[in-house]
């Protein structure tokens, strides 16, 4: 047998063995990939499909077009049209609210975050660059319902909605600390509206300012779902 023919024969045999290997191995890879994907996505699917959460149909794939939503639900159409006129405008400016040391201490107790920069006024006065204790960033964030009057049942900004659900946050920043004893207030700017099958998603930019300071304590983009 010539050398060239020998090489061709060996190459052919190797190719055949390689094809057999791939044919046997590919299903295992596919099954492993499927198992891996299920492990990764199952908690998320379980979250969206659990009995409590599924009542609100949050899955985008099940939501219809905006014009269909608004025609089917007059109350949603009225609310949507009313809010649409306020896009990119400040819709609310709240009252000043003092963040007291007692409030900071209670938050530290509940969350377990008892760092001295929050809870030790004597040490903070000596060692902190702020010359006093400061509120936790998450405490400032948690004050949004109070600062925006969203917990005031007598002043409902969405009277035609049967229910309003806090759907989460797109982003949050804490540009400047809130010292104990200072006052803060919040303003709301409507930045986006998304009509859905059974709801309207309202995206607000909430800015929390510190009295006598040009810098904001917190800027958060909140997401609210209104159900009709």
Mean pLDDT: 79
**How many DSSP-defined strands?**
6
CATH topology of the largest domain: Thiol Ester Dehydrase, Chain A
Return residue spans where pLDDT drops below 50 for at least 5 consecutive residues.
21-62, 64-71
Beta-strand content estimate: 15-25%
Tally the structural domains: 2
Distance between the termini: 84 Å
According to CATH, the homologous superfamily of the largest domain is: Hotdog Thioesterase
Give the topology string: H per helix, E per strand: HHHEEHHHHHEEEE
How would you characterize the largest beta sheet?
A: 6 strands, antiparallel
CATH architecture field of the largest domain: Roll
Helix content: 40-55%
List its traits.
228 residues, alpha+beta, Thiol Ester Dehydrase, Chain A, 2 domains, six-stranded antiparallel β-sheet, flat
What does this entry look like structurally?
This protein has 228 residues and is α+β, with helices and mostly antiparallel strands. The chain folds into two domains: 3-49; 64-227, Hotdog Thioesterase (Thiol Ester Dehydrase, Chain A), CATH 3.10.129. Helix content is 43%, strand content 24%. The chain is built from eight helices and six strands; from the N terminus they run αααββαααααββββ. Strands 1, 2, 3, 4, 5 and 6 form a six-stranded antiparallel sheet that branches. A hairpin with a 3-residue loop joins β4 (183-195) and β5. The longest helix has 47 residues, at 3-49. The protein is flat and about 65 Å long. The model is unreliable at 21-62 and 64-71 (pLDDT under 50).
């Amino acid at each position: 047998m010539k050398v060239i023919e020998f090489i061709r024969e060996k190459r052919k045999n190797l190719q055949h063995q390689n094809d057999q290997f791939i044919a046997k191995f590919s299903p295992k890879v596919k099954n492993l990939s499927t198992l891996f994907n299920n492990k990764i996505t199952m908690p998320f699917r379980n979250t969206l499909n659990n009995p409590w959460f599924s009542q609100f149909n949050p899955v985008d794939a099940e939501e219809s077009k905006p014009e269909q939503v608004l025609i089917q639900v007059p109350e949603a159409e009225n609310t949507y049209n009313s809010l649409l006129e306020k896009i990119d405008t400040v819709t609310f400016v709240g009252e000043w609210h003092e963040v007291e040391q007692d409030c900071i201490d209670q938050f530290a107790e509940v969350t377990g975050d008892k760092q001295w920069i929050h809870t030790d006024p004597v040490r903070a006065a000596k060692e902190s660059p702020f010359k006093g204790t400061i509120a936790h960033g998450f405490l400032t964030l948690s004050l949004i319902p109070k600062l925006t009057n969203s917990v005031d049942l007598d002043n409902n900004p969405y009277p035609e909605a049967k229910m309003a659900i806090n759907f989460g946050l797109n982003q949050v920043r804490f540009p400047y600390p809130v010292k104990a004893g200072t006052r803060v207030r919040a303003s709301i700017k409507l930045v986006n509206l998304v009509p859905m099958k059974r709801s309207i998603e309202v995206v607000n930019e909430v800015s929390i300012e510190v009295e006598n300071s040009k810098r904001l304590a917190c800027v958060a983009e909140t997401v609210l779902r209104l159900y009709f």
